[in-house]
Input
Amino acid sequence: MTLRGVILAGGTGSRLRPLTLTTNKHLLPVYNKPMIYYPIEMLKSAGVKDILIITGTYHAGDIFSHLGSGKDFGVKFTYRVQDEAGGIPSAISLAEDFVGDDKFISINGDNIVFESLKPFAEQFEKGDSEMQILLYEGTTEEAKKSGVADVEGEKVTQVIEKPAKPTSNNIIIGIYFMNPSVFKAIRGIKPSARGETEITDVQRHFLEKGKLSAAKLKGNWLDAGDFEDLLNANLETKKLSKKEK
Output
């Protein structure tokens, strides 16, 4: 079965203004290359060649002109524009025609990991789960600001969004392995109080079906969503790049 890739590169980047007044957030530099290069490389590590990039109207032209067809990356890019913010599930729903009957990996464009996704992709393809989440062992303070999961091995027992008292520090990062049944699940969820669909509701849907699994990262995970995170991502990526040389 072909595994496809989706990169979510929308939003206005409001937490990174004024930097994002001039370009798309995902083209901001993280050490020595634009942020969006990292999820592209992550998908390539899993053997993915067909990648859909979902962006908003905000500086969308910068994304198109910078990335082009994908030839320079050894992949093929397709693009979809999300007219207005509606949450991660709403963005993922735009990939339905692109995905077809294939399983796929969706990555938030400001997420960076430094290990191959291939083992996780193989685990998902061999298993019978309909959604597989990736977990990062963070701190209690990080867990309070994130979605977290309680697990028994690969089995997820509970998913909680921004818990005041985390029962674990297993942070759910923005990399999701899914099969096409996710599109039906997304159509069945309602927007939250903030007016957007929530990825936690999609996870709970599959948890209740007994079709949600988890895998844990061995190495680092970085999120470059605000100034502190972007600075940290630059510094950590510089360190890790020097170690690899």
About this structure: The chain has one domain: 3-244. The mean pLDDT is 88. The two ends are 35 Å apart (CA to CA).
